[in-house]
Amino acid sequence: MHPLSPTERSTVRRGKTRSTSDRAALHAVLDAGLICHLGFVAEHGAPVVVPTGYGRDGDTLYVHGSTGAASLRAADGGEVCVTVTLLDGIVYSRAVFHCSVNYRSAVLHGRGATLTDRDEKLAALRVITDHLAPGTWGYAREPSRRELAATAVLALDLTEAAVKIRTGPPGEEPADLTRPTWAGVLPLHRSWGSPVPCPELRPGTAVPSHVETRPDPVGPGRG
Amino acid sequence: MHPLSPTERSTVRRGKTRSTSDRAALHAVLDAGLICHLGFVAEHGAPVVVPTGYGRDGDTLYVHGSTGAASLRAADGGEVCVTVTLLDGIVYSRAVFHCSVNYRSAVLHGRGATLTDRDEKLAALRVITDHLAPGTWGYAREPSRRELAATAVLALDLTEAAVKIRTGPPGEEPADLTRPTWAGVLPLHRSWGSPVPCPELRPGTAVPSHVETRPDPVGPGRG
Predict the structure, then answer these.
(1) Within a domain: residue B86?
(2) Is residue B73 in a domain?
(3) Which of A175, A197, B76, B91 is the most core-located residue (most Cβ within 10 A)?
């Protein structure tokens, strides 16, 4: 267990009791998430936040995009922030002020570097594919040379990271505890529906098990 | 229907067929989301992306935070980017390159302004509460003067915004259509679980209907 680097940026200033600096917790949040939000500073100096796919290999995060996308061009070599958030429930308090949410989040800071080596890029794409659509690599057709060239992959070291996790009932003012007001948590669940086949599917093509039996996204306390 | 402002930043460069410049679509995405990702540029010039609660009133978005939070201090008067993303499913293609996700996203750009007027702030907090925990305002205790002072609310005009929506089966290379490979969509559903009461609840306090019968988050095509 390596503690997360408590550098100035990644030190959680608010809700300190909710933060954790445990590397296993960081990995668990990243592995439980499906998409991330990539933040970068555009040429004109304003922040831009875009949702995108990602995958983790050890302490490297790979973020996926098109070579034509402004986001990955701007992020190459520049400072980026990648945030993964899982909303786990709504926290109803006896007081509006203490209403909150239960969640898990990871906020990563660093300089992104786009991969140029073909093999490295292919390996990173496999990591991203294994994260977003596990079982697909080796089942679907692998990227052609042209497709690989059209894909940009950004690598980010998980050196500077902060994890925040909130679980459990609301915090309350002692004076509010006598109120006849309901308080508690409404959990939010994420689950896969039934696979919807592509209309042009060849007749008799069965749903593969990696789709049919894909486990539901990992909830709080199970990761 | 006002088309969204197609300024340089909010023009969708990638996946043009997936973008829409319809104000009703923007409102629908914002109303279906639960939390947003707020991006700003920190003092040292690097981007920061934090998850937070929000609410919409007409063409104003309110974002919620603590007066002690660095995010809202940095965002006040500065350029911010607020992104709301709903992941609706995983798109399995016959080729790894065309694997994708179905999603709805709204990306908003502008200068944030923190509210100072007490009544304005209270009204904005109600908008945020009605979004995240509808039914709570008027049921739970309203913010005290002290609590209101400890809460920061950022207002952002929905002037510069881009909406992207992807639905349906994968796009494929024509040559891949003859492959005996399954392709289609695995939908991701979000639903509320059973309310978990606070352990310190006064005995006999019933779950209010705004919690018990809260409708599940709005899926694609229903907003």
Answers:
(1) yes
(2) yes
(3) B91
Question: First vs last Cα of chain B: how many Å apart?
Answer: 16
- Could you tell me if residue B45 is inside a domain? yes
CA distance A121 to chain B (A): 13
Contact B196 A185 (CB under 8 A): yes
Q: Which amino acid is at B6?
A: P
Q: Which amino acid would we find at residue B107?
A: V
Phi, psi of B24 (to 5 degrees): -65, -35
Facing A96 at nearest CB: one of B45, B141, B184: B141
**Domain membership of residue B24 as a residue range:** 16-172+181-212
Residue B60: beta bridge partners?
B57, B157
Number of domains in chain A: 1
Q: Which residues of B touch A37 (CB under 8 A)?
A: 37, 39, 49, 83, 85
The pLDDT-based confidence of A76 (bands split at 50, 70, 90) is confident
pLDDT, one tens digit per residue, over A142-191 is: 999 999 998 899 999 999 999 999 999 999 999 999 999 999 999 999 99
Contact B50, B64 (CB under 8 A): no
pLDDT at B142 over 60: yes
B79 and A45 within 8 Å at the Cβ level: the answer is yes
| CATH number, position B30 | 2.30.110.10
Closest B-chain CA to A171:
B198
Q: What does pLDDT average to over chain A?
A: 89
- Residue B219 domain-assigned (yes or no): no
> If you count them, how many residues does chain A have?
223
Torsion angle of C-alpha atoms B182, B187, B188, B194, degrees rounded to 10: -120
Rounded Cα distance, A180 and A146, in Å:
65
